[in-house]
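From the thread on structure requests for the teaching lab: each student submitted one protein with a one-line request. Submission from student K.M.:

"Model EF1Bgamma class glutathione S-transferase from Pinus tabuliformis, tokens only."
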Amino acid sequence: MALTLHASSINKNGFKARITAEYAGVKLNLAPNFVMGESNKSPEFLKMNPIGKIPVLETPEGAVFESNVIARYVARLKGDNTLFGSSLIDYAHVEQWIDFSSIEIDANVMRWYFPRIGSGVYLPPAEEAAISDLKIGLLALNSYLATNTYLVGHSITLADIIVTCNLYQGFTRCMTKDFTKEFPHVERYFWTMVNQPKFKKILGEVKQADAVPPVVQTNKKAAQAKEQKHKPKQEVKKQPAKPKVEDPPADEEDEAPKPKPKNPLDLLPPSKMILDDWKRLYSNTKTNFREVAIKGFWDMYDPEGYSLWFCEYKYNDENTVSFVTLNKVTGFLQRMDLARKYAFGKMLIIGKEGPFKVKGLWLFRGPEIPKFVMDECYDMELYEWTKVDINDDAQRERANAMIEDQEPFEGEPLLDAKCFK
Ligand SMILES: N[C@@H](CCC(=O)N[C@@H](CS)C(=O)NCC(=O)O)C(=O)O
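Reply posted by the TA:
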């Protein structure tokens, strides 16, 4: 049975049901030719949802509105999944995070964002209150996520889907990096979730807002007009109609794709070291690793064209649970995908019982850590970075031990070692 979702393809409330459908194996189609502002105001639509808001799910047994409810319905339709966890208490916790994120996160993001883009009256003290309430919610979520990969249990539930969609609205509209850096575990969680293949299929590539949107002019005028209204005997101009805003605003949607600027690293003088040759040597060396791969590395290494860096996780004492620690590192390496052409890395997860230490070695094109990596991969800030002094034998040997996954490493066993290549 295929269901029809009436929503535009970019609506975050529609994403909730669509991602859920991916996890539940439910066939869900978007209503064809849906036009925001028209389709949802038609008499047929208003019969399904009298306030004309999206999303609406059309089922053979009737229509359902309210996005969280639609997602719950989709999750339950087949009943053979663990989207509500696997016990009554899991179920309660799933519902807890859904309500929490709707009230403490989504509502406050909307109070912040919509007045700025012209939907609602912009009042600075109201915005301040929205931001401060949002921070309280994010702080609570951040501390929970410090020791948990998922919101409930050990796999993705409906709570992760809905919370991520609510965070999506914030991350893509007004929560800039400068704002979210106070909540590193929320950041890690969000980027891990949106990079899950089933999320990515619906959301596409997610980009964090570069700036908080400026307050639109019509809105300032409307606010001024409102003030005027209260002044007697003065002519009050007709206020502009409240724009009907869908996310993102149409002008953003219509923007032509800009040509991709060239990465500055491609403009560096050519290097004798070919990164792919090193990666191939690393992957193909099965025996005599020291004599072949490590020796090969130093023969190839070009200190002019590349730099080597040690990194150490700043919050090792939080790494008490092995799988959470491993997931952190896996997420980091996934997010480094953007640097595949310019980097090689080894990450060691050290220790037998928690807290586990996470340390690594990275090779980057260029004399410094590339700026785009620093800017775009938030994990970078969670590590302390020190340039390897290749003339110092001890540091060189430490680098070798990392490339080789030498165990014990600095006197301790390895839980795991991961390679970025
Ligand atoms: N609580 C509702 C909110 C629905 C809602 O606000 N939808 C917006 C788009 S995100 C809408 O349809 N706006 C159009 C309008 O108000 O005319 C839900 O979660 O489904």
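TA comment: Residues 267-420 form a domain with the Alpha-Beta Plaits fold (CATH 3.30.70.1010). DSSP finds 16 helices and nine strands in the chain.
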